[in-house]
Amino acid sequence: MRDQMRVVVQGGGRRGRRAGLAGVLWGAAELAVTVGVVVLLLVVHQVWWTNRQALAAAHEQVRELEREWNSSPPVSPSPSPSSLPSPSSSSSSDAAGPSSAPSSASSGSPAVPTAGAKPPPAQESAYGVLRVPRLGVVVPIAQGVDKRAVLDKGYVGHYPGTAQPGAEGNFALAGHRNTHGEPFRYINRLRAGDELIVDVRGQRYTYVVGKVLGETGERDTGVIAPVPRSTVRPEYGYSEPGAYITLTTCTPEYTSKYRLVVWGTLRR
């Protein structure tokens, strides 16, 4: 009778181990989902929210400049020498033109300003507006190409040492292609004959797109020389002095491997 009442349980340890393993796997899955959600939120913030913030701030800066210009008389311009030293700071991953860290001066003769050239604006301050009718772009122009102080605000940056708007030489600009307002995202769509309009207090300069260099190296400083010509792909560029504009950004999108360049000439 005593033997008949004995109950033997087998396999309890194995089921316990299985339950413990399932708990570990479930916890790991929850952790992976949590990490994925955090990463997704960071991506959304970087790609979407920073765009909205920078774009709104840039448009407000344009309105502020226009209000300032309308409320005060234009300042008489004075000529200022222009050359092509290395920019003051490196650009960002998708905004930089050849200014990422050029270590040598570009080729070409120094720019000779016209009587309509203005003295250089204060560093990192917005002083003009670039309009690209084909793309619907209206963006402030600031002095310098610093990432945090200029480009991440959704502005385009004027390379230090390059010509001022309307002057002989090369008025060279850098802008983000992705994130932070991405003003230069679609400049690859520009074609010969498209207009690039630059407004500065009391004056408007209209440039006409002439050439597009789809890809060059980040240290190709020739593209922002007074007479722009690629040092990497010398078949692209110009050979005669003139009044040029240069737009630079990174390519392909969401990378900083190469540079995309658009050139234009001043409409006289």
Question: Secondary-structure blueprint of this entry?
Answer:
Layout: H1 12-71, E1 126-132, E2 137-143, E3 156-158, E4 169-174, E5 195-200, E6 203-216, E7 243-251, E8 258-266
Parallel strand pairs: 2-3, 4-7
Antiparallel strand pairs: 1-2, 1-5, 3-4, 5-6, 6-8, 7-8
- Summing up helix and strand content along with how strands pair, one would put the structural category as alpha+beta
Name the overall outline: elongated
Which sequence of strands runs across the widest sheet? 1-2-3-4-7-8-6-5
Number of helices: 1
Strand content: 15-25%
The topology string of helices and strands comes to: HEEEEEEEE
Helix content: 10-25%
What is the average of the pLDDT values?
A: 81
Q: Say what oligomer this is.
A: single chain
What CATH calls the topology is Sortase, Chain: A
Q: Provide the low-confidence segments as ranges.
A: 76-93, 99-117
C-alpha Rg (nearest Å):
28 Å
Mind explaining what this structure looks like?
With 268 residues, this protein is of the alpha+beta class. It has one domain: Sortase, Chain: A. 22% of the residues lie in helices and 23% in strands. Strands 1-2-3-4-7-8-6-5 form an 8-stranded mixed β-barrel. The N and C termini lie far apart (116 Å).
Provide a compact summary of the structure.
With 268 residues, the protein is an alpha+beta fold. The chain has one helix spanning 12-71; strands spanning 126-132, 137-143, 156-158, 169-174, 195-200, 203-216, 243-251, 258-266. A hairpin with a 4-residue loop joins strand 1 (126-132) and strand 2 (137-143).
